[in-house]
Amino acid sequence: MSRCLECGYDLGGSGRGDRCPECGTKSTDIELTGGLAGVGALSARPAARIAIAAAALLVIPLTLLILARLVDARDSVHATLREISYFTQAFALLAGAYLCVLVGRMLPAELPWRRMLWIVMAVRIAGACALLGFALTSVVPTAVVAELQVVLAADLLFALAVSRIAPTGGLSRASAVPAYTAVAGAGYGMVLTHLPLAYDPSGIASGVMQSGAVGAVACAIALWRIKRELHAN
After folding, report:
1. Backbone dihedral region of 123: left (phi > 0), alpha (psi from -120 to 50 degrees) or beta?
2. Cα(221)–Cα(63) distance, rounded to whole angstroms?
């Protein structure tokens, strides 16, 4: 590791496990490779925090919508919660777009998934603009906002990229397991768009899977585990 994980100070010539002369942080004992061997490791902490924030932006309004449906709330309540949901989902997508940049730094430069993240970032920005456009002006047709399968496809690609950080960076492969859960969640959400669950008459389970919240939480866990593994020593 050539840079301090906390302040980015150049640790050239220092051994693994030595303390940074700038901030005193102990360097990791892990022999990092790929993108994590350079400045990519500095992205681990902000990536974990932003991933948790993005997941919360999806989970909180989704939870409110489910509660409102279970208690048979008034139509005005449902309308208000839907508006909140549009805004929070849009902000989650924008946070996810920046997350693509951070995750890209943690991958080897030659890895195809790193280049694929630029496409994912563009899809997330476009999805956020569509949601905000509908929420603020109602100019964007509802169908454009509702049929966001392309966002779930982007989530699937993003989760695959996250799953490559640990094995290419010299970390434990266990940190990649939550990312594979995110891949499965995004894929399942895409399937449910055309094949509703027979045992889900309320549509709650399908809504949860199609919201992207499951994948967002799983990716947040994966990035948090990577951050903990880098800063555990």
Report:
1. alpha
2. 19
Instruction: Indicate the domain borders of the chain.
Output: 1-31, 43-230
Determine the Cα–Cα distance for residues 92 and 88; give it in Å rounded to an integer.
6
Predicted structure pTM score = 0.82
Burial-class residue 12 by CB neighbours within 10 Å (0-12, 13-18, 19+).
Answer: exposed
Q: Among 6-20, 21-35, 151-165, whose mean pLDDT is lowest?
A: 6-20
51 closest CA partner among 141, 192, 158: 158
- Span 178-232, pLDDT tens digits: 999 888 888 877 777 666 555 556 667 777 777 788 889 999 999 999 988 887 6
Write down how long the chain is: 233
